[in-house]
Amino acid sequence: MKRILIATLIGLAGLSSGCTGTTGQATPAPTTGADTPTSSNASSGLQSLKPCELFTDSEAADFGFKLPGEAGKIGSADTCDWTIPGNGGINAGIYANKGVKDLNIQGDKVYDIKVGKFTATKAEAQDGSKDTCAIAVGASETSSVVIISVVKVASGDTAAACARASKAADLIAPKLP
């Protein structure tokens, strides 16, 4: 269980870091005195979602999740971890103010896919972990939901991790604004 949590934390931290290779201190852009909204309707809708409510009890049972999911926060993402005894689990993170393009998504294979009506990015063997697959669903240009699936540690079964992540993304997408 600790290995799954550590792998998930590393994955979400990596996604939220958005490293660009630039060094130095960030300087905020000048403002005109009026607040300009940066969130869209989807972003504000995501703010009202709770990650641990992204699966119904029936959906959770189909995955074999140990209930309830464990709520948390990693960086700017509200998260929920669900474990599958003896076989990893899933983490879902809601980024109400970060679009997919703002995330640092890395893996052995990274490509765009469609999840429901949304464009998403899939990372097979996320951050080099052969037991992991991540799907970042773009709810809007400035908001996203990231699903990370981890299968049994040291199994090296990227295909199983991605199948689970894809199934989870397909269940979550219709619930997004």
Task: Describe the overall structure.
The chain has 177 residues and is an alpha+beta fold. Helix content is 25%, strand content 33%. It contains 4 helices and 7 strands, in the order αααβββββββα. It has helices at 2-17, 41-47, 57-63, 158-172, and strands at residues 66-74, 77-83, 89-95, 107-115, 118-126, 132-140, 143-150. Strands 1-2-3-7-6-5-4 form a 7-stranded antiparallel beta sheet. A hairpin with a 2-residue loop joins β6 (132-140) and β7 (143-150). The relative contact order is 0.20. Residues 1-10 and 12-41 have low confidence and may be disordered.
Sequence-ordered SSE layout with sheet pairings:
Elements: H1 2-17, H2 41-47, H3 57-63, E1 66-74, E2 77-83, E3 89-95, E4 107-115, E5 118-126, E6 132-140, E7 143-150, H4 158-172
List keywords for this structure.
alpha+beta; 4 helices; globular; 177 residues; disordered N terminus; seven-stranded antiparallel β-sheet
Structure at a glance:
This protein has a seven-stranded antiparallel sheet with strand order 1-2-3-7-6-5-4.
Number of discrete helical segments: 4
Q: State the total count of DSSP E strands.
A: 7
Q: Outline the low-pLDDT stretches.
A: 1-10, 12-41
Helix content: 25-40%
SSE order, one letter for each helix or strand? HHHEEEEEEEH
Estimated share of beta-strand residues? 25-35%
**What would you report as the Rg, rounded to the nearest angstrom?**
16 Å
